């Protein structure tokens, strides 16, 4: 008996009891919806809600759960945007904080699918099986976790690969008025990944559902759908959906970048994936954000609105990067698209995104209507980091290209006056005009890097200068076919490094050979002069 109440016994019993006690504190807060409408809910109290925190709403009638994001933290209440079934929630329904920020399902099984910004399939092909989730907002990796851009993203478009090359991990803005071929360039870039190892994500914001369906069809026909994920918030979707769509696209992309092929965290032995994300377009996301801000009753003239958008877009685009080897060396390349009004790039959304990205591809409607398509304005388009990733031969042959094209554009204005031009200027004009023509590409007619190098080489060596302008494109395409058929080894050689004197000579021999065949078939009269010279010799 005395044993039973000994000090040791009591402490032992206390310790055992203490172990059983659950001392975790549930920090979730519960309150009630005071007002709901236009996809926005106001919730009384919730003093501990965090900005951007996921809120869980439960319908008192049906028990249905709808999620929302805390946006406005006011003194007496919280303003939240709702996602999903907006009708289900009404005044008086319960709302609780969740202590976490919003996340969405991600994973390999999403490839080939069209999802909404909540990661739910909207293509009618059944559910997507995946356990992985990622937060829609994620802190961009710091400088130590990154390496400089060093591998190219080939778009197959000469006007881009040669002049404004894009590297893996880069952010390159595509900017221009409506109907200048912005979407087409991004779609062509994705299609050109059919034979690469890149995973592509196309984020459609505020477009018509039919346009998105059309783009999906295009990917399917061109054989890239199985390596592509489409995230769509169409014009019919609510503003909050359009607002989070680009972030959802980035989250899905990050899954592939930070993980290896098995879905485990990538490291030095297990490389991470390479991802290309297209945000089409960020101007519509900004409009959706403004609409959301207004329905949340933020003051319309609020000075901070452009600042909010800047912060939003910079957070999004900072997530693009090339990771260090220790983190698996994966990359996320971002191609944001911004639409301008009447070519005005000084409006605040274009200037914001221009300042955030590593380069810009300017598309001009003037060029587009003149038939210069893709309508890249080479004079002002830049890529600040992609050059480091360009293949050596391409860098070599494109060295003078920008100058050729720019001086042509300038001289063209003079030439219009019909004044007499000296020989050198005349030659510059002729050459520039043909090189400009050479940049034209129809949709879905990507050129492989080696073909681009070869035709640029031919152009630089003057093989186009005595052709009619109308002959430049047929000649280019014919030359590519000819080289593919007969000179596989030369094409391979071109990719290996700089073009040596020897390789150059061999290439010239082949190009001259093809040119004779081409002229014989199309302009035999031009060839006759050459032949007669031969005979005389
Ligand atoms: N390289 C091209 N060659 C011919 N037509 C093109 C080319 N690029 C775009 N187009 C056409 O121009 C139109 C507008 O293109 P789109 O990419 O939708 O422009 P945006 O996205 O700038 O509004 C489309 O009908 C498209 O087929
Ligand atoms: Mg478009």
Structural description of this entry:
With 537 residues, the protein is α/β, with parallel strands linked by helices. It has 3 domains: 30-101, Elongation Factor Tu (Ef-tu), domain 3 (Beta Barrel), CATH 2.40.30; 111-390, Rossmann fold (3-Layer(aba) Sandwich), CATH 3.40.50.300; 412-536, Lysin. The chain has 17 helices and 19 strands. The strands form 4 sheets. Strands 8, 12, 13, 14, 15, 16, 17, 18 and 19 form a 9-stranded mixed β-sheet that branches. Strands 1-2-5-4-3-6 form a 6-stranded antiparallel barrel. Strands 7-9 form a two-stranded antiparallel sheet. Strand 16 (321-322) and strand 17 (331-339) form a beta hairpin. Helix 11 (401-415) crosses helix 12 and helix 16 (501-522) packs across helix 17 (524-536). The longest helix is centred in the last third of the chain and has 22 residues, at 501-522.
How are the SSEs placed, and which strands pair?
Elements: H1 7-20, E1 30-37, E2 40-44, E3 53-58, E4 65-73, E5 77-82, E6 94-101, E7 103-105, E8 114-115, E9 133-135, E10 152-153, H2 158-161, E11 166-167, E12 173-176, H3 182-191, E13 198-205, H4 209-221, E14 228-233, H5 239-258, E15 274-280, H6 282-295, H7 304-318, E16 321-322, E17 331-339, H8 348-356, E18 359-363, H9 365-370, E19 382-383, H10 392-397, H11 401-415, H12 423-438, H13 449-460, H14 469-486, H15 488-496, H16 501-522, H17 524-536
